[in-house]
Amino acid sequence: MNRPLFTLLASCSLLAIPTAIFAQAPPQQTAPTQQNATQPPPQQTQTLVREVNLVDVLLTVLDRRNKLVPELDKGDFKISDDNASQEIRFFSKQSDLPLRIGMLLDTSNSIRDRIKFEQEAAVDFLYSVLRRGKDQAFAMTFDDEPQIIQAFTGDGGSLRDQINQTRAGGGTAVYDAIFEACSKQLSNPPRPPAISPTSCAA
């Protein structure tokens, strides 16, 4: 919080006294009056800083058929903390959400004859899906073990370059790759700058 800046300007007046009067009557020093002596000093302006906790609650509502329920409003939600009801200050809904994509490429020996096709298909997919400045993806290969070749990025060129450098060989650790992609990458993707998807702030 910016503190207000106060500027105090003091003006001084210069009194010119004729030299004749100055010689006859030396200037008298003004003694502080009783009122000035007892007058309390002016009060200083104080700035009160208060910490406010605003908590974002991100949620997605599904019906019994696992279909999205978009027609919900602020009044359809209740938030409590330690059994105390909390006021919902802000409520917003978003449907055009940023994408976070994991691209897993099989680079085992069994794909050696088709790796060029796999590379081209992966690059074409990412270029057709990723929206500049909004979506991000990471690329992972798996043969004997999974390996991240490009961390989350929105740069399609970087993803393309890393994918085209892949070479085939080794086993097929597909389950290890899926587990690592889900548990380490997609479980904590980069958060978009905007509030998403449907959020309540209390």
Describe this structure in words.
The strands form three sheets. A three-stranded antiparallel beta sheet has the order 1-8-4, with no helix packed on it. A three-stranded mixed beta sheet has the order 5-6-7, sandwiched between helices. Helix 3 packs antiparallel against helix 4. Helix content is 24%, strand content 19%. By secondary structure, the chain is an alpha+beta fold. Mean pLDDT is 78; it is low at 1-25 and 194-202. The protein has helices spanning 19-24, 34-38, 115-129, 156-164, 174-186, and strands spanning 56-59, 79-81, 84-86, 90-92, 100-106, 136-142, 146-153, 198-201. The protein is built from five helices and eight strands; from the N terminus they run H-H-E-E-E-E-E-H-E-E-H-H-E. The longest helix has 15 residues, at 115-129.
